[in-house]
Task: inverse folding
């Protein structure tokens, strides 16, 4: 693992399918219980009306989004196979017949080898899990649960609308059906210091998760976080601070966990701060440089 600083997602997919596989981000037009008043009011403080996605479903169905995504990604990355990534909002938040129709439509494309379904840990039913387990008999099916932090105080502060216990429950029910789980975390959340962020890494190291996505908290126009930033109530991490946090975070994770992401991809027209978040390549280089300088690699400090 020292030669490869972390277990990256692209290598995992290539090992699994023997070719380049790319995710196609989809917007299924679903909602979120933290925005419609079911568990909260107004959503998480960092989320806008697009739900961390593209809003593409307002204009195209799943099949059309996949067709467009295939054309773009095949040309850019020479990808031959694709994962359909249900990204925007909570993609298990609907009755099963509606969800099944969406999932089946995506899997009907012969070049789609599986699904990645982004959702919240508090809105996935056993009925939906049973259906996904059935799909998983012939396809690669991943559930991506937004944890963000392993501290309940932080989850309350960001208006997340669920507890750490809800995440543990969702993971246990998913893994009982052998569905792989990816946990999403955010570094730089209001009120958290480095030790709080590393507490989340230590927590995840003890959970039955197969992958982790690490996101930078950046400020998007029109969000509650935007108001906090404008008033001086919140300040963003520096690039150096983020790189250090990611490096130390990775060192605490078990070597077998797949790292699906090391930073986010803000839309330039929506981003308020930090502007350095737009330079993804330089940000990844900063993480690698910190790990190299400090002799870190995924799993070094695990256990």
Result:
């Amino acid at each position: 693992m020292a030669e490869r600083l972390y277990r990256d997602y692209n290598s995992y997919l290539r090992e699994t399918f023997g070719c380049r596989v790319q995710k196609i981000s989809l917007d299924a037009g679903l909602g979120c219980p933290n925005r419609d008043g079911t568990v909260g009011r107004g959503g998480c403080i960092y989320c806008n009306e697009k739900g961390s996605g593209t809003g593409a479903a307002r204009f195209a169905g799943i099949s059309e989004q996949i067709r467009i995504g295939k054309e773009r990604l095949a040309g850019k990355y020479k990808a031959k196979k694709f994962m359909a990534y249900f990204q925007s909002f909570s993609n298990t938040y609907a009755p099963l017949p509606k969800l099944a129709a969406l999932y089946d439509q995506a899997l009907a494309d012969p070049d789609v080898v599986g699904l990645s379904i982004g959702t919240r840990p508090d809105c996935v039913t056993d009925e939906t899990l049973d259906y996904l387990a059935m799909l998983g008999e012939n396809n690669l099916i991943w559930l991506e649960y937004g944890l963000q932090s392993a501290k309940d105080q932080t989850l309350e502060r960001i208006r997340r609308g669920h507890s750490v216990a809800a995440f543990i429950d969702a993971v246990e029910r998913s893994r009982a059906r052998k569905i792989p789980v990816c946990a999403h975390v955010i570094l730089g959340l209001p009120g958290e210091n480095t030790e709080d962020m590393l507490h989340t890494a230590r927590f995840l190291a003890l959970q039955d998760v197969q992958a982790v996505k690490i996101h930078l908290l950046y400020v998007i126009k029109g969000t509650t976080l935007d108001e906090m930033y404008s008033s001086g109530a919140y300040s963003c991490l520096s690039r150096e601070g983020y790189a250090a946090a990611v490096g130390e975070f990775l060192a605490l994770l078990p070597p077998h966990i797949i790292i699906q992401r090391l930073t986010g991809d803000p839309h330039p027209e929506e981003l308020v701060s930090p502007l350095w978040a737009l330079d993804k390549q330089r940000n990844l280089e900063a993480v690698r440089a910190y790990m190299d300088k400090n002799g870190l690699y995924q799993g070094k400090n695990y256990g």
